[in-house]
Amino acid sequence: MAASTLTPPRIRRRCTVVLEGCVQGVGFRPAVHRLAVGNGLDGSVRNTLQGLLVDVEGDESAIARFLDDLAAFAPVGGAPSRRSVTWEQPTGLERPFSIDASLRDGTTELVPVPDLTTCDRCLAELTDRNDRRYRHAFVTCTTCGPRFTIVRTLPYDRDGTTMSGFAMCSDCRREYESPFDRRLHAETISCPECGPALSLRDRDGRLIHTADPVETVAGVIARGGVVAVKGIGGYHLACDATQAVAVEELRKRKQRESKPLAVMVKDLAAARTLCHVSDGEAQLLMSAARPIVLLARRAATRVAGNVAPQSHELGLMLAYMPLHHLLLEAVDAPLVMTSGNATDDTIAHVDDDAVHRLRGAADLFLLHDRPIHVPCDDSVARVVRGAPRLVRRSRGYVPLAIRLPVRAPRPILACGGELKNTFALVRGHDAFLSQHLGDLSNERAYRSFVDAVDHFKRLLDLAPEVAAHDLHPAYRSTVYAQSLNGVERVAVQHHHAHIASCLADNAVDRRVIGVAWDGTGYGVDGGVWGGEFLVADLAGFERAGHFEPVPLPGGDAAIREPWRMAAAFLRAAYGDTMAKLDLPFLRRLDPAAWRTLSQAIDRGLNAPLTSSAGRLFDAVASLLGVRDRVEFEGQAAMELEALAEPRADWTYATGLTETDGTMVVRTQDVIRGVVDDLLCETAPATISARFHATLVDILLQVCTRIRQHTGVGAVALSGGVFQNTWLLGAALDALETAGFEVYSHRNVPANDGGLALGQAAVAARRMSGKDSG
Ligand SMILES: [Zn+2]
Ligand SMILES: [Zn+2]
Fold this sequence. Notes:
alpha/beta; 30 strands
């Protein structure tokens, strides 16, 4: 009773806290410093090769408060971190809390940080005439600015970034070192005195002297010009999105006839004047990653129709670096901001190369002298059924780890596919998916793939012992995997990888009915698959059903020319009597071209059979007169979807045949239904809706049969066809109503951009089974 409860004894304690995960470059060290000093604690914080090491010493209750405060601290980007606390013997020394030099001991377990959009406080300084960073196009702080695209090595220190060439002025140095400044240890700190600067060049690369490069550029854009603008992950081509003539000129120069172009606006209010924006979409637009968000376009807007022809959607993004804010302020109009390249090429990011490659496209170049170490395209996303879903996962998301449902006992490199390529490196549970690298049949894209693999290996300090790849022997990613020495190889079938990707995206490892619908993928029988029903888990799969194979006349040419698929499907459904059908499509068809094609099919010349769902969409689009030739894969399907009425009143009866336990969907029945409707002049919008609903009907029928046979009650939807929001929404509704548990994509694309994650998950599962067995 003698000890008074009013004055508890002060107990001096000391503990170390290890923080792992995405903890460097997001403002953790300054936050730890602030919290420690605020609670009157001594000690230090430093970057390590594993994350952050915090060492605090002081009053026991103050340490407890500090640990609570630290747990409540949420860094930008919301990346998860893990922490462990160890109690130590107090030193008893007075040592004012400090940020110490990075430790470089042990093995690397760092998670690098993606590029972060400009924060509100930096934006306020940018527009404050009295601030010393007024109109400084490179204003950043501890919680914002470029990261992934400027980091050469880890831990995240200025010396390891492309800012290393800029020596801090005395004012910046003072802020950098001051415990009370919000730029304490801001590695990208700079100001107009000491930081990067803007410059202008003409088409021949000659410097243009001007008092204010941004104003000059704004003038050129206002007069309908096209300007190449260096950004965070590469160059954009910019023009005034409200001037149809300027947009047309940009299209001509970029050789991009009709593919939708992205538009940048300054803020959410500006976005709302152009598109309908739900709360979920607003959140996605405003997120630190700042992706291009596909939104429903308003009926009457300032944006020219040729920005996104044949579409009800517009891809909008908000300004995400200070330069964009200055530019949009000066132009005062929404800007087309499309990646600086010719169609199918990689984004230009090195200054001299950019001027060389884009001189035919741009009237003027707006450059800066902060090097881009890693090129990185803008990400693309949309909200379906309230959930954000990535269509292209790149800037702002890369290189955040995706946690696999299974731990890889050894480091894995998953090489991805051929189109929309990304690769993944796996360490333990963490899969690090690369930025979008594009079509590897393009030489420049292949070189950037090889460079990016090397960069990720160095950054993560990882030497893969396993290489996962597609079954297709001619994919360059496969050939690359085959060329690696001293690694074990795991071949993963294309559609199995799609389904595994969807499982990994949902952090589950269980047996599902996998519906994998896409353009093409190499089957285990060497065939061209693409309308697949698999019973699968991460370890393996069986092919339970597929679309009836039809010839792909002319091979790859049939992908570029949907009319070939329409003809092939008509022939499959009607044989020689197809010529008697009174269809507008047949009146358009060149008889000579069709005769040649038909003979080639008969002789089996360059007309492999395919079960592709994507090609069925192409065929119907062509029959309806939507499009006979495409500029990019999936274009005809996108336009067919845009055409569809929101609801269907009818579906086309479609038969299933069953051989040896495999179900075959009689797609020619679908074609007959479409043709009957065309013959009685049903509106294309109605036919398109009926066609979509028919596919949902087929999906439900086949899944129900498989459930009866196998007892598997969960479905995973993957493959590029499920980027079709009409189809995805209706499929989710139908399957859930029928009592299925349904998995669909969120964090990685349903298209081939997600393949690497699936390959990684399959390889990890097979390794873990083997290594423990
Ligand atoms: Zn900031
Ligand atoms: Zn400075």
